[in-house]
Write a sequence for this structure.
């Protein structure tokens, strides 16, 4: 009569051990998949920062280019007026950069350019 009770206790112990191991593994330790997911999230956040920095730099360069082009057009129009006093020329348009809000700069939205004909 001792053998059936011993075998039943052994089977119950195995079942409790299996349940305890799965509970502790899920709560106490990170699996390899969790570590891989965290690594991937970290890499994506770094990539996102690089892309945002790139767009901010492009936004700044576009601002500088539009200012230089506008200055060049103004100088060209002034020189054309001096060289041809009869004003038989069509003046080049002047670009005006619309004021960009801080929210647009944070979201890296492109600036809006307006062509002003004089």
């Amino acid at each position: 009569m001792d053998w059936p009770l011993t075998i039943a206790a052994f089977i119950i112990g195995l079942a409790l051990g299996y349940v305890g191991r799965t509970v502790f593994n899920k709560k106490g330790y990170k699996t390899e998949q969790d570590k891989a997911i965290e690594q991937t999230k970290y890499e994506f956040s770094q990539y996102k920062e690089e892309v945002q920095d790139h767009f901010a730099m492009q936004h700044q360069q576009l601002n500088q280019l539009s200012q230089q082009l506008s200055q060049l057009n103004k100088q060209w129009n002034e020189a054309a007026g001096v060289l041809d006093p009869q004003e038989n020329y069509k003046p080049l348009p002047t670009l005006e950069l619309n004021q960009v809000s801080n929210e647009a700069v944070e979201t890296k939205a492109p600036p809006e350019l307006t062509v002003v004909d004089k």
In short: The longest helix spans residues 32-83. Helices lie at 2-28, 32-83, 102-106. Residues 44 and 50 are 10 Å apart (CA to CA). The longest strand covers residues 94-97.
